[in-house]
Amino acid sequence: MMLEIWLRLILFCGIFSNALGGFIGINIGTDISNLPSATDIVAILKARQITNVRLFDADAHLLNALSNTGIEVMVSVTNEEVLGIGESPSAAAAWINKNVAAYVPSTNITSISVGSEVLNSIPNAAPILVPAMNYLHKALVSSDLNHRVKVSTPMSMGIIPRPFPPSTASFNTTWNSTIFQILQFIQNTNSFYMLNAYPYYEYVKSNGIFPMDYALFRPLSSVKQIVDPNTLFCYNSMFEALVDATYSAIKALNFTGIPIVVTETGWPWFGGVNEPDATLENAKTFNENLIQRVFNDSGPPSQPTIPVNTYIYELFNEDKRPGPVSEKNWGVLFANGTAVYPLSLSNSDRVNADSSTVFCIAKPGADENKLQNGLDWACGPGQANCKAIQQGQPCYFPDTLQSHASYAYNDYYQKMHSSGGTCDFDGTATTTTNDPSSKSCKFSGSLNSSISGLFSAPAFGPVAPFSGGSKNPAYQLSLVLWALFLLWFCFM
Ligand SMILES: *[C@@H]1O[C@H](CO)[C@@H](O)[C@H](O)[C@H]1NC(C)=O
Ligand SMILES: *[C@@H]1O[C@H](CO)[C@@H](O)[C@H](O)[C@H]1NC(C)=O
Ligand SMILES: *[C@@H]1O[C@H](CO)[C@@H](O)[C@H](O)[C@H]1NC(C)=O
Ligand SMILES: *[C@@H]1O[C@H](CO)[C@@H](O)[C@H](O)[C@H]1NC(C)=O
Ligand SMILES: *[C@@H]1O[C@H](CO)[C@@H](O)[C@H](O)[C@H]1NC(C)=O
Ligand SMILES: *[C@@H]1O[C@H](CO)[C@@H](O)[C@H](O)[C@H]1NC(C)=O
Ligand SMILES: *[C@@H]1O[C@H](CO)[C@@H](O)[C@H](O)[C@H]1NC(C)=O
């Protein structure tokens, strides 16, 4: 019984086909005191080799500056504009003429996001959302642009009350008819579902039920694998679980073949005293791992052949945004164009630079005796080069077991993993894509050259966590039950 389950787990964890073409785009919000000029913004995008951007409106300066750059552009109808357009086909036609037809093809506008999380932010407008999308689509048809430009509307996870486990997720029935019409529209027009999915908010509201590593795409130990009890799919990250929850909810309404594009995700790098998870380290880790995951080109477990195209939120910190401190600190760049933290946003950077660098380090808090054994083994039979951690050598400091073991484990792993060496060391080791090197101590596999193409946009940011979240007892209970199930499952 146990063997069978593990075999199935391994099987399921191993299915990843080679779908092609995942892209990373970036949201460009402009609620900034010293907003760079449109030309400067486009220069930054080119320097960072960004291929896809989403604007929260249809700013004429930016759309002009983006012409003849090849950069693909998603423009947005603001929530204020949705109201007028939903009531008037001629308002829709005027919007398309002014904001799309006037720029295409020299500016490569390929999609229109209609409103922002309308069902959560302006629920009263729900009845006119689908009419607005329809009128815009008809205007595109009249301009013969409907094959080039797709229309959809970004939804938050707030309309899926219980996203965990993913297989049982369904849309809030309050929105039955609206969502049904939206999906029908998407299917009829060969468009896609726009999802705003923030593991940051899900993590914060789950009150520690999920490990932080799961929210940050870090490897989970085998005992903590997150497995959907119904499908036995393994979830290596909360991000993938949220995308799959949405695929399940779509399927529950009997729609198939609708791809999901993540229009917003990200992690704030700085927050107020009551926002301890908004740190530079977490933001960097999340975005780095996200990018690596998307460029991997495989989809989430339930849809392995559909890449998870994703727009990161966001290019610039938006200092003028209202709300908690974190709200101003989602950017990967300061308004002056300097990177908040190094981050390579383009696939070509990755291929040239560090596409495959995974480091093996000692797990924080690992048992000291086991660490010592692991270190001795790595430097002995494991044939790691442990010279650099001897007294007087560059990696001697910090003189801790943790640090020395990390160096030795990694040296062993870099040499041996291609021939089957693993990063385990009796459970005391873990892999990471964060280079553990310091200025003086370079870990094997580290790029010692300075990494180019690092970086980090304005608009309506993530709407704060929707209601129906952490305070909802049913939601809490479902999390606890799921967590208990997983524990039982994994120790069986
Ligand atoms: C616009 O983007 C689409 C999708 O990537 C691409 O197929 C097309 O060639 C681009 N058009 C121009 C003019 O760059
Ligand atoms: C569904 O949405 C309605 C309207 O926003 C809300 O009142 C209700 O609590 C939601 N249901 C669940 C289960 O979250
Ligand atoms: C929504 O759809 C579900 C499943 O089809 C059904 O059980 C429920 O009664 C519907 N709710 C409303 C408000 O139409
Ligand atoms: C989906 O299709 C199945 C089988 O045809 C049917 O039993 C079910 O009621 C349908 N569900 C919805 C929400 O239409
Ligand atoms: C792609 O991602 C899957 C799931 O995280 C992983 O199993 C697989 O090894 C990755 N492939 C590459 C080439 O990184
Ligand atoms: C850019 O702005 C950041 C934050 O205000 C500041 O720390 C940095 O020094 C600035 N860089 C340049 C080159 O002006
Ligand atoms: C990186 O390190 C290697 C080995 O220590 C050295 O040969 C090489 O010159 C270094 N490259 C740079 C750009 O510092």
From TrEMBL:
Keywords: Cell membrane, Disulfide bond, Glycoprotein, Glycosidase, GPI-anchor, Hydrolase, Lipoprotein, Membrane, Plant defense, Signal, Transmembrane, Transmembrane helix
Protein EC: 3.2.1.39
Family annotation (Gene3D superfamilies): 1.20.58.1040, Glycosidases
Top-level EC class as recorded in UniProt: hydrolase
Signal peptide: none
PANTHER family: GLUCAN ENDO-1,3-BETA-GLUCOSIDASE BG1-RELATED-RELATED
Protein name: glucan endo-1,3-beta-D-glucosidase
Organism of origin: Olea europaea subsp. europaea
